[in-house]
Amino acid sequence: MAAGAETVSDQDKLFYCDTCSMLFLSEGDARAHESLSGHSTVQPAVAQA
Following DSSP, what letter does each residue of 6-49 receive, concatenated? Predict the structure, then answer.
């Protein structure tokens, strides 16, 4: 595997803010939203293809 390559499961982690109905593609984005807005984000179940 190439350096820096992510596994499929790493790419499929999505975070959702129930309050804003916004979806975040990375934990960093979700945590930044939490700290700026005071909302809490949750990681929904990952759909298996």
Answer: PPHHHHT--EEETTTTEEESSHHHHHHHHHHH---EE-PPPPP-
The answer, as to whether pTM is greater than 0.70, is: no
Burial class (CB in 10 A: 0-12, 13-18, 19+), 29: middle
Residue-level pLDDT at 24: 92
Q: Where are the domains of the chain?
A: 10-42
What distance in Å separates the CA atoms of residue 30 and residue 43, rounded to the nearest whole number?
Answer: 9
CA gap 8, 27 in Å, rounded: 15
